[in-house]
């Protein structure tokens, strides 16, 4: 602790009400990066399934009622698109969480 003391240097002029949220933000920043990578893998899996099932017809559903038929591939493609949008939201949150 001669050169860098946790209370005298790292938390200089900060209370625990400052230090805990800061530590949480830093931890979440790293976690959100891992989450975005995992979500990207899931998105790619949806895209592969969309191609695999592009010709498989299924009944569309709207509010638990039968609707216009669609392909299973189209449904998986929709999942992939939504996952892509969610990845962008996670990456934006990752930027915003750096505000301390």
Plain-language structure description:
67% of the residues lie in helices and 8% in strands. It has 100 residues and is mainly α. The chain has a single domain (6-96), classed as Fumarase C, Chain A, domain 2. The strands form 2 sheets. Strands 1-4 form a two-stranded antiparallel ribbon. The chain has a two-stranded antiparallel ribbon with strand order 2-3. A hairpin with a 2-residue loop joins strand 2 and strand 3. The longest helix has 37 residues, at 16-52. It is elongated.
Give the helix/strand layout:
Layout: H1 6-10, H2 16-52, E1 57-58, E2 61-62, E3 65-66, E4 70-71, H3 72-96
Antiparallel strand pairs: 1-4, 2-3
Helix pairs in contact: 2-3
Structure summarized in a few sentences:
The chain is mainly alpha-helical. It has helices spanning 6-10, 16-52, 72-96, and strands at 57-58, 61-62, 65-66, 70-71.
């Amino acid at each position: 602790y001669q050169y860098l003391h946790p209370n005298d240097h790292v938390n200089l002029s900060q209370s625990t009400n400052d230090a805990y949220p800061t530590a949480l933000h830093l931890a979440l920043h790293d976690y959100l990066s891992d989450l975005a990578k995992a979500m990207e893998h899931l998105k790619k899996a949806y895209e592969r399934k969309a191609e695999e099932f592009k010709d498989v017809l299924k009944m569309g559903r709207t509010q638990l009622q039968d609707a216009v038929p669609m392909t299973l591939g189209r449904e998986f493609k929709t999942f992939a698109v939504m996952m892509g949008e969610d990845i962008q939201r996670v990456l934006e949150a990752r930027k915003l969480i750096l505000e301390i």
